[in-house]
Request: fold
Amino acid sequence: MLIASPLVAVPAASAASGGAGTSPAGGASPAPAGPPVGTNASTPQTPATGGAPTTSAGSARPQDGDLVATATGDGITVTTTVSALLGHQLAFTGITSPAAAGDVVVVQRLDPTAGWINVAAGAVAPGGIFSVVWRTDYVGRLTMRTVLGQTAAAADASQAAGSTSPTLQITVYRPGLATLYGKGFFGQQTACGQTLRRATLGVASRTLRCGTEVQIYYGGLTIVVPVIDRGPYANKASWDLTQATAKALGMSGTATVGAVAGLVQR
Reply:
């Protein structure tokens, strides 16, 4: 289930969804507007945007969710994967000057209200290599940066002076049980007012507004689909995926997926 948000469910008298389970407790709050202050000499091995692009209903395509991205700045090169599940470990590995051996390396997250905050720290090993592990505790599309031996305030001052810490974007998903539906409901109208087809991409939610985009992560793939129906209502599931959505992700039955509503963070 996702973190609660002010999104309001649109009630409906009937729905095509035949799934089972409790719904997520809503979406997520607005993400920070734009990238962090300053530029970044980023050289991603793959786009560090954390998943599939926003697309209209019925046109979303699955994207590789296990991409690895690299950024370089301030004499630091750092690498991480662009997707993670809430509560799981995410490693930021890299290299800096061998002269920095023994110094503290800090991973920071850009908070929409508080600015840069420290989330994990480690020490630079001989040869300048480092590995900092963050146990994710925040859901959404996040901007992260890596700094050496600095507080968040000192890093901000360094950034303002023209320093460019390596910055990456990742997506942290809230895990939840997902069912799937379709057979027996094709041709019926969903609670959001569209006819369910075999090719319909979408997800059922008990609380999110119709049309809210949900980014789903499963089996190393991500896809962005809209809320098109109400449900699920049993089996403690958080989501009910249409048959076409499940097929696009390679999902053949009830399974745990990661999800972020609205492609925003909280």
In short: The longest strand covers residues 167-181. Residues 1-14, 19-58 have pLDDT under 50 and may be disordered. The radius of gyration is 20 Å. The first helix runs from residue 152 to 160.
